[in-house]
Amino acid sequence: MSGRVALVTGGGRGIGAAVARRLAREGVAVAVIDRDVRDAPGGLAIEADVSRPDEVSEAVDRAAGWGGGLHFAYNNAGVTGVRAGLADYPDDVFWRVQHVNVGGVLACMRAELRHMLAAGGGSIVNAASGAALAGVPFSGAYAASKHAIAGLTKTAAVEYAARGVRVNAVAPGLVRTDLVRGLDQETFVAAHPAGRAAEPEEVAEAVWWLLSAESFVTGVVLPVDGGLLARVPGLS
Ligand SMILES: NC(=O)c1ccc[n+]([C@@H]2O[C@H](COP(=O)([O-])OP(=O)(O)OC[C@H]3O[C@@H](n4cnc5c(N)ncnc54)[C@H](O)[C@@H]3O)[C@@H](O)[C@H]2O)c1
């Protein structure tokens, strides 16, 4: 994998940092884009806000210039919003979540595709969630944004499959990171047949395979959730 270049957004901590470490372990040169790059692991760290398309475009060009191309991208930066029912959901928070999660993935893919299409191929993985495949009570903004990411992923996959770019997404269940510290862990863990939350490294393994394997897989939203979405409701 030496000579390959990857970009990871939100790679300053959590799942993104685990993916950056996984890629680096394989000899891939990794550029991390984050609004807070203090803890970015190795490689090139670029401070940028993914909800700002101008910053994203500049940051992606910088990463590709630094590495001499762009082969892999993991669009992972995301936020959750507040916990509230839809009848009471605050508009400003709703649209902020869409700007970061949906606008961010769109801006990133647009900039990444420019480089990948010019080079004849590449592989993109987006961070969806179990909330891309089912409703999550009191997380309407988050679920709407993740369903939109699934739609963008599938659309990009069919638009660019014939030009050598594969586009997939991962849909993790609960993963032990700062993002979910405020949740009622017990309730969420109990919904997972595996009986526990995932470690960031377990999601990184799936992202690594989707990014790098010379496979025919494109347009999938892959659950990485210890069986969460496979369970027949009510059966233990
Ligand atoms: N942790 C989970 O249980 C879980 C489950 C399913 C999906 N996900 C998704 O995985 C992704 C990563 O989650 P995590 O748990 O590692 O989160 P995290 O909060 O630990 O890390 C997110 C990173 O993204 C960065 N970031 C946030 N907004 C940004 C912006 N506007 N511009 C640039 N960087 C920004 C943060 O600075 C942080 O470094 C998110 O998209 C999240 O929705 C997480």
TrEMBL record:
CDD domains: SDR_c
Domain of life where this protein originates: Bacteria
Family annotation (Pfam families): adh_short_C2
Matching InterPro entries: NAD(P)-bd_dom_sf, Sc_DH/Rdtase_CS, SDR_fam
The keyword Oxidoreductase is annotated on this UniProt entry: yes
Residue ranges that the Swiss-Prot or TrEMBL entry lists as coiled coil: none
Keyword set, alphabetical order: Oxidoreductase
Similarity field: Belongs to the short-chain dehydrogenases/reductases (SDR) family.
Protein name stated in the entry: SDR family oxidoreductase
Species for this entry: Amycolatopsis acididurans
